[in-house]
UniProtKB/TrEMBL annotation:
<feature type="transmembrane region" description="Helical">
    <location>
        <begin position="96"/>
        <end position="113"/>
    </location>
</feature>
<dbReference type="GO" id="GO:0042158">
    <property type="term" value="P:lipoprotein biosynthetic process"/>
</dbReference>
<dbReference type="InterPro" id="IPR001640">
    <property type="entry name" value="Lgt"/>
</dbReference>
<keyword id="KW-0812">Transmembrane</keyword>
<comment type="function">
    <text>Catalyzes the transfer of the diacylglyceryl group from phosphatidylglycerol to the sulfhydryl group of the N-terminal cysteine of a prolipoprotein, the first step in the formation of mature lipoproteins.</text>
</comment>
<dbReference type="Pfam" id="PF01790">
    <property type="entry name" value="LGT"/>
</dbReference>
<feature type="transmembrane region" description="Helical">
    <location>
        <begin position="177"/>
        <end position="194"/>
    </location>
</feature>
<keyword id="KW-0472">Membrane</keyword>
<keyword id="KW-1133">Transmembrane helix</keyword>
<comment type="similarity">
    <text>Belongs to the Lgt family.</text>
</comment>
<feature type="transmembrane region" description="Helical">
    <location>
        <begin position="56"/>
        <end position="76"/>
    </location>
</feature>
<keyword id="KW-1003">Cell membrane</keyword>
<dbReference type="GO" id="GO:0005886">
    <property type="term" value="C:plasma membrane"/>
</dbReference>
<keyword id="KW-0808">Transferase</keyword>
<protein>
    <recommendedName>
        <fullName>Phosphatidylglycerol--prolipoprotein diacylglyceryl transferase</fullName>
        <ecNumber>2.5.1.145</ecNumber>
    </recommendedName>
</protein>
<keyword id="KW-0449">Lipoprotein</keyword>
<feature type="transmembrane region" description="Helical">
    <location>
        <begin position="19"/>
        <end position="36"/>
    </location>
</feature>
Length: 277
């Protein structure tokens, strides 16, 4: 069993001002994405300035934060936040939904593209390889917060999380690190290598949705679902059906199917005309 590193969730404390590692992880993800986007900007559109790129990153970041938080509230804990509306603003305590964040990014991207003469999928293909940076950083933030840990296990790398997080004090899968490895590192490598060559428009977006859906669906087998998700069919606490299907897995099914369909559509469309960047 590996010891859980005791890291204070507060990175910097200056009197009443407290800067949490969870928030810093979002800044790292956004900053890293901006730096890599700057390197790829000439390939995407040589006429674009760094200022226009900064505007795009700003609106996408807004989509991530607002969509992620609203999605978490709607998908996972609507009753809790209706009873405690001020907790909606306590983002440093965690509670962000990737699926909600994705919807927020899509909306921000569509709006920005309409104003700047770019199609939705042109921008999404440009953004998709950058997203795993933020995903990986966010999972490290979850790990530092000692939240979203996994099911009890006896694997050699199991960890016991702090009592304030896990009163049962059981060895558990460090599922946040599994997600960091898959959604952060592996997904970044796959998308970065795939997008290095010209690909049909929408194929990079399709691969991103497909791979993320598969990775997240897989990790959900090791991650403990939220106990307040209720049950459906024969489901138990935290499951919505069949004693194994979680809300995270349910939300991934349309992503996997949509990713496959989008890639098929992109390549069939490209076969009928010259390859588009």
């Amino acid at each position: 069993m590996l010891p859980y590193p005791q890291i204070d969730p507060v990175a910097v404390s200056l009197g009443p001002l407290k800067i949490h590692w969870y928030g810093l992880m979002y800044l790292i993800g956004i900053g890293g994405a901006w730096l890599l986007a700057s390197r790829r900007l000439d390939r995407f559109d040589p006429t674009w300035t760094k200022e226009k790129l900064s505007d795009l990153v700003f609106w996408v970041a807004c989509g991530v934060v607002l969509g992620g938080r609203i999605g978490y509230v709607l998908f996972y804990k609507p009753d809790f936040y209706l009873s405690n509306p001020l907790n909606l603003f306590k983002v440093w305590e965690g509670g962000m939904s990737f699926h909600g964040g994705l919807l927020g990014v899509m909306l921000a991207t569509w709006w920005f593209g309409k104003r700047n003469g770019k199609s939705f999928f042109q921008l999404m293909d440009f953004i998709a390889p950058l997203v795993p940076i933020g995903l990986g950083a966010g999972r490290i933030g979850n790990f530092i917060n000692a939240e979203l840990w996994g099911k009890p296990t006896d694997v050699p790398w199991a960890m016991i999380f702090p009592p304030y997080s896990d009163p049962a004090q059981l060895p558990r899968h460090p599922s946040q690190l599994y997600e960091f490895a898959l959604e952060g590192i592996a997904l970044f490598i796959i998308l970065w290598l795939f997008s290095r060559k010209p690909r049909p428009t929408a194929s990079v977006s399709g691969l991103f949705i497909l791979c993320y859906g598969c990775f997240r669906f897989f990790v959900e087998f090791f991650r403990l679902p939220d106990a307040d998700q209720g049950a459906g069919g024969n489901g138990g606490p935290g499951y919505i059906a069949w004693d194994w299907l979680t809300m995270g897995q349910l939300l991934c099914v349309p992503m996997i199917l949509g990713g496959i369909a989008l890639m098929v559509w992109a390549y069939r469309r490209a076969a009928a005309k010259p390859l588009a960047n």
